[in-house]
Amino acid sequence: MYFSLGLKMNKKVFIQTFGCQMNVRDTEVICGLLEKAGYQMTEELNHADIILFNTCSVRQHAEDKVWSQLGEIRKKFSCRKRIPLLGVIGCMAQNYKEEIFKRAPNVDFVVGPSDIHKIPDIIKRLSAQHYPLNAIKVWQTNGNIRPEEIYHTGFYQDKEHAYVVISEGCSNACSYCVVPYVRGQLRNRNYKDILNEIKEAVDLGINKFTLLGQNVNAYQYEDVNFVKLVERVERVKQLKEFSFITSHPKDTTFDLFRVMADCEKLKKYLHLPVQSGSDRILRLMHRGYTRKFYLDLINSYRKIVKGGVLTTDIIVGFPTESRQDFEDTYDLVKKIEFDAAYIFKYSPRPHTEAQRLPDDVPKAEKERRHRLILELQKNISNKKCQ
Ligand code: SF4
Asked: Which of 74, 263, 306, 317 could form a disulfide with 346 if both were Cys (CB 3.0 to 4.6 A apart)?
């Protein structure tokens, strides 16, 4: 069966996004670039000439969903005359690179998070070729710096709120985390470009923003650190409200709490992943802080940011986590009373240090611990809501 897209006028692109807010913003960036290149976005898979999966690798479960959907796409279009071009982008693309073609031969191209600006060209190249189905494979996973202009296409899915990437990648080395491998080391955007992007979005009628980074507190560009950046965003006219995600406890300062208390437009909301309440497990995770440090930080946050909302992430069943380690986490959640918490069962990730540790907490026990913390947090959240 032969395959040709011919001219790209009004060719339709379907994109499915998996994972975090960073991927949501990346999808918008890709849509903006493709629209500029003459493609049309569609929400109808059946109408698509090009299908893109913007993927996540943070847990095994997220990847399994993509592998199964790639299989369904193959079945769905195998007996059709017209077979859409299929691309896997994002963290799984960076994690597996050309391996993806072996496991899913119906995939035509693979593009990592730092190469997304190359997608229109790749589609154009693949489309211009008249070739047997799936004969040509393209993968781009060696980029590092994204060109600044990709953030200025003006494409936003939400007409009131926009995510604004302030930094890409992460230079922490939490032993369970695949992010530094799939998104690279920390790169901070120029604060002037960030403010320009916000002002351009304000001109489009958007007045609510979320500053995005794997660890926003580590932001630094020339003499502008995160606190100074927040103060500059606060001064943007017509901006109504903004917040930021995600913070890391070891880089969270009293200065940040003070600017949160002083800035009227800044939501009094802090997402501060603790991950575990056991010092031994925090060391194995390379989190860089202790249980006491975290508890003291929360006390200061609550003293300075009156009525501030607090949420967190917790991993249960990390390698060698004993019942006592788990009790320490349970006790910390009880003590702090978060407004909400995202609770995950540990799953080994490729290219991480923790992958070398024995995944020795039995599945049933991981589920028991997950259930116990979930029930505890549900009761706390319900009580707080009332
Ligand atoms: S701070 Fe740790 S958990 Fe968060 S993205 Fe960086 S390495 Fe991963």
From this structure: 317
Q: Ligand 1 pocket: which residues have CB below 6 Å?
A: 170, 172, 174, 177, 179-180, 214-215, 248
Give 236-287 pLDDT, tens digit per residue: 999 999 999 999 999 999 999 999 999 999 999 999 999 999 999 999 999 9
Provide φ and ψ at 109, rounded to 5°. Answer: -150, 155
The model's pLDDT over 220-230, given as tens digits with 9 standing for 90+, comes to 999 999 999 99
Q: What is the pTM of this model?
A: 0.93
Q: Using CA atoms, how far apart are residues 181 and 172, in angstroms rounded to an integer?
A: 11
Rounded CA separation 165/197 (Å): 10
Rounded CA gap, 52 and 107, in Å?
10
Q: 279 and 372 share a domain?
A: yes
State the distance from the centre of ligand 1 to the C-alpha of 286, rounded, in angstroms: 10
Residue among 144, 263, 257 nearest 209 (CA): 263
Same domain, residue pair 59 and 134 = yes
What is the identity of the amino acid at 196?
A: N
57 CA → ligand 1 middle, Å: 13
DSSP-based three-state secondary structure for 92? helix
Phi, psi for residue 156 in degrees, rounded to 5: -135, 135
Which residue's C-alpha comes closest to atom 2 of ligand 1? Answer: 174
Sequence-distant (≥ 6) Cβ neighbours of residue 192 within 8 angstroms: none
Averaged pLDDT, 153-173: 96
Distance CA 256, CA 258 (A): 5
Please state, in angstroms and rounded to a whole number, the distance separating the CA atoms of residues 12 and 111.
19
User: Which residue, 3, 39, 289, 314, is CA-closest to 134?
Assistant: 3
We report the CATH number of the domain holding residue 35 as 3.40.50.12160
Q: How far apart are CA 165 and CA 244, in angstroms?
A: 10
Q: Which domain-ending residue is among 239, 267, 295? A: 267
* pLDDT (mean) for 66-82: 90
